[in-house]
Fold:
Amino acid sequence: MSLTFTLDGKTIPFEDGQTIIQAAGKAGVFIPHLCYHPEFKPHGSCKLCTVKVNGRHTASCTMRAMPGMVVESDTEEINAERRALTQMLFVEGNHFCPSCEKSGNCQLQATAYHLGMMSPHYDHFFPNRPVDASHPEVLLDFNRCILCSLCVRASRDVDGKNVFALSGRGIKTHLIVNARSGQLGDTDFTLADKAAQVCPVGVILRKRQGFAVPIGERKYDKAPIAETVTEGK
Amino acid sequence: MTYQLETAQHPKPLRRVAIDPVSRVEGHGKVTILLDDQNKVHQVRLHIVEFRGFEKFIQGRPYWEVPVMVQRLCGICPVSHHLAASKALDVIVGAKKLTPAAEKLRRLMHYGQMLQSHALHFFHLCSPDLLFGFDSDVTRRNIVGVAMAHPEIAKQGVLLRKFGQEVIRVTAGKRVHGTGAVPGGMNKSLTVAERDELLKDIYHIVQWSRDAVSLIQKVHTQDPGLYNSFGIFRSNFMSLVGHNGDLDFYHGTLRARDDNGKLIFDHLDYQNYNQVIEEEVRSWSYMKFPYIRAIGKEHGWYKVGPLARVQNCNQISTPFAERERKEFVDYAGGTPMHAPLAYHWTRMIEMLHAAEVIKELLHDDDLLSDDLMVEGERQMEGVGVIEAPRGTLFHHYQVDENDVITMANLIVSTTNNNQAMNEAIRHVARRYLHGREVTEGLLNHIEVAIRAFDPCLSCATHALGKMPLEVELLDVEGNRVHSLSRS
Ligand code: SF4
Ligand code: FES
Structure:
């Protein structure tokens, strides 16, 4: 007998061991997320994917699906919480969408649109985070890092290089480069690395090639994020 | 150095009148006037918010981001900054010559911008003054009043602007703050559908632009006493001129003439602009005062923009605009015209030229080509200059070996006109305000003089000309003696 649970009233089939977000994705149901990526082990840090299971909050990217679960996701209450989390991410970093070349291809921006975020709401922190331009092919603009750790996971688990790490705790958490100098130019990072492809925002950028795709043809110009995400993106 | 009425000898006992903000201009500016007991004028100054913060802000950013980022300087002519920065960065990426498609697409974008900006300025911001009079009923002296009294003219103004914005949208991806130009070329060309859509309307656009020239010419020539002398001052003038000395808004070499029209310099490669232009800082203004080095601080300042360009070029390459240019030059009588209100006339000649160039470009299949990018040997420094709607615009960058901006210097069009605008309002203050009780109508005269230059005073936009104007007269102690307001 096939296993199922319900998500916002809809019956979702799943296989043993799948998380809620994996099963939902497979069934074509979008649950907002930032640190989850189908190719990597879940990290469970951004909390955007939070749903209510049998009335209790939990991260759907780490929670295994169970038969008969009652899951709520697309509700006014949960979306309001997700919106507040997104607003906090915007004010913690320096997210200047108008001149960011990731605009239109950025998962944070697309998620903000999806959640109907109209303003940052909170006071900006305006952190001082200089760019790392030391690598010949790749620029790191830390201003936009949301600490999803996807680059950390990709570099460690796929590239076998360990170029990135999260350092510090709580509000002091920040992304570092594993080199004595702390500079990307002093690592063996290359553009071909998986870690160069995974950043959901505009931190890890190919140098000398901004705004190559015209407005109208960028990823989220073509379809809003909720329609682009099914299993495997 | 001293300019008449720039600084009062004994400012202490004088009353201060402030026009703050100046209305129906782009952005935020303020005029202060010092008057004595008999309402005699002792000091007049135009203060403007400058962009220096932006130059700092850009430092440390990757160079390829700059053409998109600098557009945020201005909501009214972002395309000019976008293109001036792109041109400077073409030099940095070693793109000595763009592909024909990229150059034509950028030109199309720029001429679309020229059309929309000139239309906005003339129809929305200035036609109320020009059609109703400078001290006409203030409740009618706005675009809504124009729409009621002259519905056809108001409608054409709206459609001209809309067309210009549409040209920008198809070349830059968005009507405001698009992407379009990138260092070394463009990121998109036109589709056949986009081109055909523009082709449908361009013939009206050319015709309405011709009508606009006739309208302003009539207004000007009917009242030569006012139009040839209001706010007048003599000065040098400067602009880019294109191939063969043609009027060219997108590219060329620098040319400056003195007040009699004699050449000061010509064929100057703008990469070397700082050999001929220097900027002076004065304690009372955020905005610098540029001048031509060879002539010196005192007399080396100049005007830029339509009045400078139309008189600086040898000819205009499109037939209707060239005919209008000749009429203008004939009217001026063979010597340069310096009257600020003649800016309006020359601005409309330029709008007509922009419309004609757009028409020509739309018949050129290069616009549909995908051959859009070139690169060459990487350089560390580049200057980009363009003729923005308001005048010559300089962008100058240095980039380090890691591709990060280390220095940015911008001289925006309005800065180039700084001294010129100050001279114009001092002339108006002397002629109209001196010894008279200050009224809203009289203060509007000062604003009319400023508006003639179409200054972009900062980044804000107030297209409907409804900025509140507050004028206060304070006595020496700072007590309010008299106040006027309009909102
Ligand atoms: S750089 Fe990008 S991928 Fe890495 S942690 Fe920051 S946001 Fe995530
Ligand atoms: S996507 Fe589940 S916590 Fe980030």
